[in-house]
Amino acid sequence: MSRYSRHIVLDEIGQAGQDKISAAKVLVIGAGGLGCPVLQYLVAAGIGKIGVVDYDTVDESNLQRQVLYNTASIGQKKVIAAKERLQQLNPTITIETYPEKLVSENVIEIFKDYDIIVDGTDNFSTRYLINDAAIILDKPLVYGAIFKFEGQVTVFNYKGGPSYRCLFPTPPQKGSVPNCSEIGVLGVLPGIIGTMQANEVLKIILGIGTPLSGKLYCFNTLTNQSMTIGINREEPTIAMVKQRGLNFENIEETTFCSNNAFEIGIESIISEDDIQFIDVRGLSEMPRIEREDILEIPLPQLTKRLELISRKKKIIIFCKSGIRSAQAVAILKEQNITNCWSLKDGVSAFTKALSKTT
Amino acid sequence: MHIEIKYFGMLAEVTGCSSEILELSVTPVSGLKEFLFKKHPGLQQKDFRIAQNQELVSEETMLTGQEIAILPPFAGG
């Protein structure tokens, strides 16, 4: 087949490698800045079956970087416009479209038909959903993300490697990280990062080179500087995802978006007995408070130390400012420890209250 | 010791620089964070991970490295 002759002629690929590519099934989530170059190169390479998930329509402001679309595509469903263009490029492969939002109810059904998942989405909640589903179904996840002039690429969940939650355990506070549509992005950046994602997909399929597992590649288009940062697999984090499944969204959304649902002020508890305090700061963070009713469990260890936590007492968790303690509350609630609260203003509220009473 | 701190993504906008050289005494990473929070209070509202000599480190890790990277999560696609 002359279509793939420039791959087949490479010793590292050959006909056997091209057959692997033809047999592969890859799901690309997001047909935007990253998704477009990923799809173009994977379709050109002859991946046997490609799925595309995106519920969005083409907007004129997408055309600066989403190179599968043209002016006539404006207003069309992205997956429809993308499929049409991609089948012109390579009519020999199967392209499956999913013009829907990826949610916990459909993610498993969609993922199970594919060998490799590619994340080209533009928001944290979908990125965490994709990550957790990839862990549950044990599928490699090729991750790319961009901000203005900088990009990140890595491969998660590959042969016992780390996951997205090993890098960033929980979604950031809503609003603290803007997205492309709010702040702008250099058009060629997703081209560079998306093409690197396609490269990782092909390396995984072919079994050649070294996939970027356990390594976060960071690239700055303005300085041409790059840095590769090692990430370790955090077994408790992976185990937690496997155990709780995909019902994380409500818990994390509650914690990170309403920010005070489980928050309590020191004044309303200072006179109460039967309270178990938990300090989830790192053990070296000052000031320390020495009281018999305080357990010291740094947040990363919380899931490993659940047996220390009373199921009868009211649990008040504190850290420095209230962010980690809010995460801890979410973790405990998942473990059915429901009578737990995050202390407003953290350790400083505690020290102020103590100085008044003594 | 001299440490070069590199700020990625929006953190460079928060601190007003993409890198800086700091003179620090021996401290765990949590101490570095406290120092940075004082120097750049805007960082307190941001999520990030810290890498030392190109490896992610935890709060308890002692600073030994010449190169520290402060990495925020990116969502864009």
TrEMBL record, chain A:
One of its GO terms (cellular component) is cytosol. SMART domains: RHOD. The keyword ATP-binding applies. Keywords: ATP-binding, Nucleotide-binding, Transferase. It comes from the Bacteria. It holds the Pfam family ThiF. InterPro entries: Rhodanese-like_dom (IPR001763), Rhodanese-like_dom_sf (IPR036873), ThiF/MoeB/HesA (IPR045886), ThiF_NAD_FAD-bd (IPR000594), Ubiquitin-activating_enz (IPR035985). Gene3D superfamilies: NAD(P)-binding Rossmann-like Domain, Rhodanese-like domain. It catalyses: [molybdopterin-synthase sulfur-carrier protein]-C-terminal Gly-Gly + ATP + H(+) = [molybdopterin-synthase sulfur-carrier protein]-C-terminal Gly-Gly-AMP + diphosphate. Residues 271-355 form the Rhodanese domain. Its EC number is 2.7.7.80. One of its GO terms (molecular function) is sulfotransferase activity. PANTHER family: ADENYLYLTRANSFERASE AND SULFURTRANSFERASE MOCS3, UBIQUITIN-ACTIVATING ENZYME E1. NCBIfam families: PRK05690.1 (NF004281). Belongs to the HesA/MoeB/ThiF family. Catalyzes the adenylation by ATP of the carboxyl group of the C-terminal glycine of sulfur carrier protein MoaD. Homodimer. Forms a stable heterotetrameric complex of 2 MoeB and 2 MoaD during adenylation of MoaD. This is Molybdopterin-synthase adenylyltransferase. It comes from Gelidibacter salicanalis.
From TrEMBL, chain B:
Keywords: Nucleotide-binding. It holds the Pfam family ThiS. It comes from the Bacteria. One of its GO terms (cellular component) is molybdopterin adenylyltransferase complex. GO terms for biological process: Mo-molybdopterin cofactor biosynthetic process. InterPro entries: Beta-grasp_dom_sf (IPR012675), MOCS2A (IPR044672), Mopterin_synth/thiamin_S_b (IPR016155), ThiS/MoaD-like (IPR003749). GO terms for molecular function: nucleotide binding. PANTHER family: MOLYBDOPTERIN SYNTHASE SULFUR CARRIER SUBUNIT (PTHR33359:SF1). Belongs to the MoaD family. This is Molybdopterin synthase sulfur carrier subunit.
